[in-house]
């Protein structure tokens, strides 16, 4: 029997089993067992709350609970009791993803109830939307009137079973929820529902649909205003690759456009990946007291083995929080200012000639931030090798002729290898990187956040070296390192 209490007890009694080896120092991870999507990301009563898709009983996906953590700065987190368990007849096979909103001082969670309806759990299911409410931001009561949107409220013409991940937002005193779905014929789409009280909901319309190249089902939509524009972030499933982009099984994309709420239509011109690395999915955003729009993604990818699933008793982590900034027709993603409070042991070097050499930078670590600026000069290729020892290395490089930045983890350790590439333009011949390494993760912010690449790596504990190299003439204009703890 799945209850919150059973989950909490199970975690408390087993936590000692957690293997520290790849546990992250400054990212939110599953407390125990499995974590996927960020849920209910909200600033409430002076703290950031993050909930997450959670199966505490094993480090694999299972009947979903909502794990819960709070933070004052989005870097260091404190776990709270499990917020939701699949304990009702309308959510008995899982409390799937959803969002949070404050109303009259109370915290409301809106989430998807998942029900298996036949022998094939991959095909036979239905989904509905529910509300749980809290006075203290810790203990949640599911409404007696759940589901607030039943599967019978899905109009015809849309999938009658993929109907999930409500993200609630308010405009002019009315609540809206965007939901991910598809048309049953291979195109993902987003549905919009409206409510004045969060309890009684009516269908408004379909606001966006795949152009045929954007996957067969859309998950985890998030729609928000930024700088006078509307931004839709969502995670298309099985989106075919486009050049270097969308090379993971499921992807995440953003569109800047205009939401016409009366017409229930979202118009956009183009879409871009939110992250160009290996491990980033189902992100969610919130706006905080300072008006910052902040995004956090699940720092994993579906349907691949995670090394900590074997013998480590946990799997799944969130990315660093990233501030979303509108610049012209694009979004920039930047690490939060708060990260700087965790910098220790500053090291700085400048004007290092890298021409045709591989240089040991003389510093090392597995939990650190780097700020590096390269002057490309005539170099064919230049970059960094991180977490180096013996044959192990994780390579971040730039190929000047192609104008491509690469993240290669073929020799990173155990776990999956592979390479992701993305086009990056030099600025006056310079490439600026901010890199965060945390035990089993690497996040690279390129050219002030124009592109971000995220990946999990599982090197040996002794793989701590930091090297820089170039083929051809190249200068490292500046190199800064801080330990992060
Ligand atoms: C996305 C997702 C959501 C769903 C949840 C289930 O990663 O598939 O669509 O609500 O995970 O855990």
List the SSEs and their pairings.
Blueprint: H1 4-14, E1 33-44, E2 47-55, E3 65-71, E4 78-84, E5 95-103, E6 106-116, E7 125-134, E8 141-142, E9 164-171, E10 174-182, E11 188-195, E12 202-209, E13 217-226, E14 229-237, E15 253-260, E16 265-273, E17 281-287, E18 293-298, E19 314-315, E20 322-327, E21 330-335, E22 343-353, E23 358-364, E24 367-375, E25 381-389, E26 392-399, E27 404-408, E28 419-423, E29 430-438, E30 441-446, E31 451-456, E32 465-471, E33 475-484
Parallel strand pairs: 1-19
Antiparallel strand pairs: 1-2, 2-3, 3-4, 5-6, 6-7, 7-8, 9-10, 10-11, 11-12, 13-14, 14-15, 15-16, 17-18, 18-20, 20-21, 22-33, 23-32, 24-29, 24-33, 25-26, 25-32, 26-27, 27-28, 29-30, 30-31
Bound molecules: beta-D-fructofuranose (FRU).
The site of beta-D-fructofuranose (FRU) has 13 residues, from strand 1, strand 5, strand 9, strand 13 and strand 17.
Low-confidence residue ranges: none
**Number of helix segments?**
1
Named CATH topology of the largest domain: Tachylectin-2, Chain A
Largest β-sheet summary: 6 strands, antiparallel
Strand order of the largest sheet: 22-33-24-29-30-31
Query: How large is the share of residues in beta strands?
Result: over 45%
Q: Return the structural class.
A: mainly beta
Count of distinct strands:
33
Mean pLDDT: 97
CATH superfamily of the largest domain: Glycosyl hydrolase domain, family 43
Structural commentary:
With 485 residues, the chain is mainly β. The chain folds into two domains: 4-335, Glycosyl hydrolase domain, family 43 (Tachylectin-2, Chain A, 5 Propeller), CATH 2.115.10.20; 343-484, Jelly Rolls (Sandwich), CATH 2.60.120. The chain contains one helix and 33 strands. It has a six-stranded antiparallel beta sheet with strand order 22-33-24-29-30-31, with no helix packed on it. A hairpin with a 6-residue loop joins β3 (65-71) and β4. The longest helix is centred in the first third of the chain and has 11 residues, at 4-14. The mean pLDDT is 97. The site of beta-D-fructofuranose (FRU) has 13 residues, from β1, β5, β9, β13 and β17. Residues 36-37, 53, 64, 96-97, 112, 164-165, 219-220, 281-282 line the site of beta-D-fructofuranose.
